[in-house]
Amino acid sequence: MKKLAALTSILLAAPLFAQPAAPPPPPVTVAPWIHALRDDALANDHYAWDITEGLTTEVGQRMAGTAAEARARAWSVARLKAMGFSNVRVETFDMPVWVRGPESAEIVAPFPQKMVVAALGNSASTGPAGVTGQIVAFDSVDALRAAPDAAVRGKIVFVDHRMMANQDGSGYGQFGAPRRQGPTLASQKGAIAIVVRSIGTDHHRNPHTGVMTFADGAKPIPAGALTIPDAEQLVRILGRGQPVTMRLRLESTTIAAAQSGNVIAEVPGRDPSLAPVMVSGHLDSWDQSTGAIDDASGVAIAAAAAKRIMDAGRPLRTIRIVWFGAEEVGLFGGNDYLARHGKEPHYAIAESDFGADRIWKVDSKLGEARRDEARMIGAALAPLGIVTGSFDEAEGSDIGPLLASGVPGVGLSQDGTRYFDIHHTPDDTLDKVDPAQLRQNVAAWTAMLGVLSGGIEPNARARR
Ligand SMILES: [Zn+2]
């Protein structure tokens, strides 16, 4: 009875005539030429592969601030000019550079054996003699934070964790803490060095590097990442219950000021008074591989889409391509662009920096007044199997500060399931790029640019 009374009161509280749900907005119409450009890119694009293959083959690895990155800028200027873009230029800036040296790790006792390690960016150098110490292990950064200093002082900290692969790559934020915060915490507690389980999802003997900084005045200490199989081996060795001693050699040098730069090119719009649409990726890579998925394919996707619009005719708005320098080591290129151009209006911005696997979702943050335009991007991308996500979200590494300051943006999310198997390892090479999925990326970016660039006046070549 009590239940029935409650039900009755709920029924009585409900309005007698329920309001009908708001009708769905009328469907938006995507211009046929946008469908045609998208489908042509999906079937035929070769620009993105040509750039990815060319940059990784002819330049190779291109660590920020090094001569290799300077070669990459020269290569990029020549390639973008050859593709017919306008206003091709480099905006240089200075930055500190950390350079990897010889590195090794070995268990000295109780079971002597070699392990595979990579220094994290900004690690202190052990010098050629290395450091030797007892391992103190934690299964998370929180456990390290909670440990008394006396348990850590004079030892080599090891931080374990278990990052799982997922489609949206969100594990990187969650499980990246051992790399980002672990070294500072270990240093503050008096550790002589730290090794973390690589922030990755593979089971290969490839260490995953990445940048970290010593915060809050913490003294730099040597900091490295063990491969995932080696981290699991270390856990087994520790599980035998005897003290474990490691010898760690992570040599490196730093240069106070070296030059990096952003490479910029444009497709001039018919109305130069209108704010440009900016598409981007980052040109620098880590030093152990050719950076095919991070981020040669990203700069390639952005430029290939702009090129396909340019081939078809003149867009209303200028399309600006930015290949950022020095992303990996601390978003120096993004910050330089922000300082120089952050006050200029941008119609929309986007960045490709999550590999080259197929895009599955489009988010945007164009503002309430441009909701139909956001819906049109979704409709233009839907035939590629791409779902429309949020209308109030967009993200990107270098463009993050611009987005945060309110610049409108679009975020095309790639499938990240295998991205962290390869990310920041010596295994980030051209063979990991699937040409068919790369074309799907270009098709999506081309359709997005078709909407955002405001209509094309077909050129003679495109009309033929
Ligand atoms: Zn990247």
Give a written overview of the molecule:
- There is one protein chain.
- The chain is an alpha/beta fold and 464 residues long.
- Helix content is 35%, strand content 24%.
- The strands form 3 sheets. Strands 1, 2, 3, 4, 5, 6, 7, 8, 9, 11 and 12 form an 11-stranded mixed sheet that branches. Strands 14-13-15 form a 3-stranded mixed sheet, with helices on one face. Strands 10-16 form a two-stranded antiparallel sheet.
- α2 (32-44) runs antiparallel to α16 and α3 crosses α11 (292-312).
- The longest helix has 21 residues, at 292-312.
- Mean pLDDT is 93; it is low at 1-14 and 460-464.
- Bound molecules: zinc ion.
- Zinc ion binds next to α11.
Task: List the main descriptive attributes of the protein structure presented here.
about 35% helix; about 25% strand; 11-stranded mixed sheet; 3-stranded mixed sheet; about 475 residues; binds zinc ion; alpha/beta
Query: What is the count of DSSP helices, taking H or I runs of 4+ residues?
Result: 17
Main beta-sheet strand count, sense and barrel state: 11 strands, mixed
Uncertain residue segments: 1-14, 460-464
Rounded to the nearest angstrom, the distance between the terminal CA atoms is 79 Å
How helical, in percent, are the residues? 25-40%
